[in-house]
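#struct-help
A.M.: can someone run this one for me? Single chain, 645 residues.
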Amino acid sequence: MAKINLSEEDLKLLSESINNETEIPQELLTKLAPSFFDKLNQEGHFDFEKLHKFKIPTLEYAGKRSESVILAQANLTTGAAPLQVIRKFGNNDHDNQWRNLIVQGDNLQFLKTCYLNKDPLIKDKVKRKVKLIYIDPPFGTKSDFSGNEGEYSYSDKIERSEFLEAIRERIIYLKEILSEDGSIYIHLDQKMSHYVKIIMDEIFGKNNFRNEIIWTYSGPSAPNQQQFSRKHDVIFWYTRSDNWIFNKDTIRIPYHETTARKFESKGTGFGGERADLSQGKIPEDWWYLPIVARIRTEILDYPTQKPEVLLERIIKASSSPGDLIMDCFAGSATTGAVAEKLGRPWIMCDFGKHSIYTIQKRIWQIGESKKLGSDAKKNEKYALPPKPFAIVSAGAYDFSKIIDLRKNKDAYINFVLGLFGIISDDKDYTAKYKLNNIYAEKENNPVEVFPIWDDDYLKNIKVDEEYLKEIVNATGSRLKGDYYIITPEVCTVVGNTTLKNSTNEEVNFILLKFPYKLLEDFSRQMQIEEQPDSQENINKLISSSAFYFNEEVRIKLTRTENGFQINEFQANILDKNNNRFKGLDGLSMLLIDKNYDGKVFNLDAAIYKKDLAEDDSIKIDGLNQYSAVIAIDKHGNESAITYLS
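D.P.: on it. Structure tokens below:
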């Protein structure tokens, strides 16, 4: 955050402007908001619309960055990882047909990938195509209020300014992928809603604020509590522009009997006209709807699960059949499930493996779930199979398959450029330098990516002195100064080398090598937010971790009379002090399918490390000869599906 330096004269002038209710002079404004005016100067003109936007209150805190800086960072591919398909469901093998996506990984990495619009899986299918975004960010845990037994509250674990900036960064990218007539609903509680409202005004503009919706519900209260019962959430609705979708006729609700009788007796309605009360009314901005705990048919035993009727109203109001819906804090997948039932394609993203397997089961078995609008007593089933969908990974690489990235030339180039912090863009550097394989510049010097996607280069051609001489000879006197080559170290037999061109000027070849072993060690040391080891911590905000590599997880189990016993667990990950986890210290959770069919793992129970008995045993009912387990370590790596012996 830029420091503000005001002289005594400046302070006097500011005081006079406030007391006299006159406009603050522009030269003083530049001192009050240097970062704002710096941005305007960089853009080459004074934008009065942005100045008007600036008149709204803003939050200022350490570490706050401009929107332009945040968006520019997406070009560093260490922050926008290629998407990798892990599992596919349903028949859809045509490249141009849409497949709904469950994205496992840091949602920030995925949003950057969407913003860059280069990954073949989502290119031209997501950016500016999303009609509706609903998010329910994790603004705390149960320990936020208690802090029992020496536990620190969530706000102590993550500095509030850092937390707000993480949310703000994601909202900036969400705006960029929202369609021009799109809407975003952000679901909050009383702890952070006032902060986020200011952030939303700043990013979307206060003129694009549509509603503050109060979702109110009933529930028990503690008999001795010293405050009013907290029984509502806040949902802010913003649109990208002043042209938005609002399908009011799809969400009408019946008038109260008293209201209907009143207008029927008078013979007139609102504005003196006769009202057609049979159509119902548009809901107010407070919604009394039940929580999931009171809807038996929806309970998934997942914390923070939201009722389908809540998302049904939002999705119907702000989208139409066929419109793309996104939820990047997906949790238990209520957004995707309701979007599916309403004929909308969807994308859901979450970091937690508990969430991913919960979503997978909920969508795969959606036909068995309740039909929207079904009478609770009849409990009519949806009864349709799911549309084709896939589980994809954002930011995680199978280390043994990194070289497979070369099969996708663009993905490989972006990946290796990002390793060295080099920005990838769409300029034609090959034409500029009249050389093949130039894909970027570093400090205004050419950067070559050694073309190992060509088998001959990978197997037969090496970066040696002859290879470098051929580059110099091909360019005559055009090439001089530094020339960078990014290459696997197995493809080079020389170090940095200086040669002279046809006019006796020096060309300095600088080799940027990446040994795979070094990459592996480096990736392990990168900060990866740990998977939760208790249900209370399930909704921790996941911080950006760039890329990391999948590691092997091993587990051996033995069936017992009341469940099963962990005999052996091995994780190859390191803790934040770069020490290898010992024993079960690296375990996050166990996922259980009580009747695994050998094809699709359907999550029936999640057992967190905190829930294990002292002898590392688990008590659970309903196991049979087909019961299977997946072990998840603290970095989200998972074991093979293991049958209980």
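A.M.: thanks! The two ends are 58 Å apart (CA to CA).
D.P.: also worth noting: The mean pLDDT is 81.
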